[in-house]
């Protein structure tokens, strides 16, 4: 019963990191949302998949490396799922081994179904 | 129906605020309720209280005052706002500054959340 | 779902990404702002839009096509035009996702 009351919200991240602020402010929102005990999931589609690339080093850029947050989103911030679209990874020459954390790599059709189940979709 | 509105683009550079405004007016004319408008990313800049565009141009500051007079809550994200110089002294009297929890509240309380 | 596409397909992946997430028959597409250029006859996205309109309803926002000087007869066949009230009605009928 308790489970049914939770609102399902999905972040749909479609932008690469650093070039714009969208990834950074999406993460800030994910962290906040996690504290409210709702059913929050995150998906990476298109250029959004670059946000999860291993080995990001922002020292020369003079910016904080926000990708360090992804490995702890589920355990520390109560995010339910992190989905990455398989086709977007492949189109960009990436595979699961290139990603910095364990995520659910799903094909478009499955992610499409997940999106349909959401009450609110937040594009970033 | 109850709508929540999220605005992510800044004023004048993008059309988001104009599209959102026209959508909100149409929704109210059709008898729907706007639970709130949340401003995030560069969208927070729409709530700047010191904007003064040329007089013959549509004025976003006045558009927001009009929405607020209709009883619509306009909420600028505190963190995104601070980052861009939007604080209590610079925010429009039409808007309030609050946290991201308000955006999640809008997701929960509205039948539909629409992003511009 | 209602897929709102608001960037020109010539500058953004919004349309191409959205197409992958459109449920055939059920979903509706609304082109707004610079997104409306996708529906112009003779453009690069004509084939894609034609395929889309076979299974899904595709709408353009009236204010945005008028502002950009696009006449109704310059739009592809089967593209429907709606005003802001029509836009609101589509959001009432379908959960929206915005692609930019």
From TrEMBL, chain B:
State which gene encodes it: tusD
| Pfam families assigned to the protein according to its UniProt record, in alphabetical order | DsrE (PF02635)
| GO MF, any single term | sulfurtransferase activity
GO CC, any one term:
cytosol
- In terms of superkingdom, the source organism counts as Bacteria
Q: Which GO terms describe its biological process?
A: tRNA processing
Tell me the organism.
Candidatus Acidulodesulfobacterium ferriphilum
This chain belongs to which protein, by name?
A: Sulfurtransferase complex subunit TusD
Q: What is its main location?
A: cytoplasm
Q: Where in the cell is it found?
A: Cytoplasm
Entry keyword set: Cytoplasm, Transferase
- UniProt family annotation: Belongs to the DsrE/TusD family.
